[in-house]
Amino acid sequence: MITQKFPPFNGVxxxxxxxxxxxxxxxxxxxxxxxxxxxxxxLDAVDEKLLDGIPKNLSIYRVNAPSxxxxxxxxxxxxxxxxxxxxxxxxATLIRSxxxxxxxxxxxxxxxxxxKEIFQVENIDAIYSTSPRETSxxxxxxxxxxxKCPWIADFRDPWIExxxxxxxIQPLEQFEKYLERIVLRDSDRIxxxxxxxxxxxxxxxxxxxxxxxxxxDEEDFRDLKPHVFPKFTFLYAGSxxxxxxxxxxxxxxxxxxxxxxxxxxxxxLVLLGRQDAFVRDTIKKYELKYCVHIIPQIPHRECLQYxxxxxxxxxxxxxxxxxxxxxxxxxxxxxPILAIxxxxxxxxxxxxxxxxxxxxASRDPGLMACHMSNLLRNREVSDCGIQDNRRLxxxxxxxxxxxxxxxxxxxVNQVYEYEPYK
Length: 422
What we know:
Order of helices and strands: HEEHHHEHEHEHEHEHEHEHEHEHEHHH
Strand order of the largest sheet: 9-8-7-10-11-12
Strand content: 5-15%
Mean pLDDT: 87
Largest sheet: 6 strands, parallel
Distance between the termini: 28 Å
Number of helices: 16
Number of strands: 12
Shape: globular
Structural class: alpha/beta
């Protein structure tokens, strides 16, 4: 299993492969992980407790992964502790645009070299690579061609059409499209975390594409005590940035507090995770600092305690196709959900199928303020019925790992003969 990030790295992308590794052994597969070494000086937030959730006998191979950050420091830039921010119109942005497919492209060489050693000592039957970062798929493809093993390319986000993809000069843009094309062409199976990812690819590859969503791990919720908030709390879990179109959330809060000023001391909005400058500037613009509380990235189980303790949960999507992985843990928490989204968006439709009436979706600040006001008047939420909700439990991580194991079984049990592309 080839992944650029693995525990103790923290983040929603890390959870997907970590949970596959945790549960796929239940279905006859022994995972072997190829990933990057931990780098202290520009490391994303870590969660050491995530290591407790993976098999003790797991084979993990970690290799050096020189990145854009190293180049940035060499030319006099300064890497931030805990995260790395690339401002627009900066030298850093230019440097980032030169690395195709991503700033960890040098990992291709160290990864392939280590993978060749792995194939000599491990009995590898299949290859699974996950992105972002897309360099993982380039490693997977090289190993697939060399060792003739079935290969699954798993996409947690689109490639060419993803948010935050840097604007490249035309030759590099065409080169990256070529890389996407050969990865999609040569992989035996393509997995996507949400349907919109498949729709972003060439229709010709749909026959070997399959949606395998993110989900929730019931073991993560075991014995959890909800965090106790002193005020009625709206909570947004996860990174929040301009491209997610969160502005209606702050505008709605402003409308609510101007029309009902007595609520100023009774409610709060908690932002759990990283926020960009746009979010911070918006909070300042609407003078909401007194009721908006920012909590930096925290361990996953602690995040779930906050989710369980909130009175209402919020997520935002930039378009109708994006499905944030947080919505599955929101569904498991069974708290009211406010979605900054269209009613017919894929994320809202999933919530409606699992728990009708739980989610209120709108991009209109006035309507959202009305929803917030209604929730304040009716804050009691019943958790009954969760255990009997078959549609909810279809998204449990163990069930998703079972699906991945079935896909691997199907690929490996076929008579596999590699046919060069003609």
